[in-house]
Design a protein that fits this description.
Elements: H1 2-25, H2 30-37, H3 40-44, H4 46-58, H5 60-71
Helix pairs in contact: 1-4, 2-5
């Protein structure tokens, strides 16, 4: 019985760690990036905010996409194009 309990707990821990690691490799879509930039993700879902932050730290493609989204007319940062990156 102890072996079963240890196996279940170990499986749960490995699953949770795996989800966190794989989540940081997922490319966020444009809506997720805009919500991240506007601080909505930080306030609503700390785990998602951390995953996007970790992903942006390693993915030039997504950082460039976020910069392009900010520069769109009426998009976040459109009124101040010289905003420096926050990631």
């Amino acid at each position: 019985m102890e072996i079963l309990l240890v196996t279940v707990v170990a499986t749960a821990i490995i699953y949770r760690i795996g989800r966190e690691v794989l989540g940081s490799f997922r490319h966020p879509d444009d809506e997720d990036l805009l919500e991240y930039w506007n601080g909505i993700t930080r306030d609503a879902d700390r785990s998602a905010y951390r995953q996007i932050s970790e992903h942006l730290a390693t993915c030039d493609k997504c950082r460039d996409r976020l910069d392009e989204l900010r520069k769109r007319p009426g998009g976040p940062g459109a009124h101040s194009p010289m905003i420096t990156r926050r990631y």
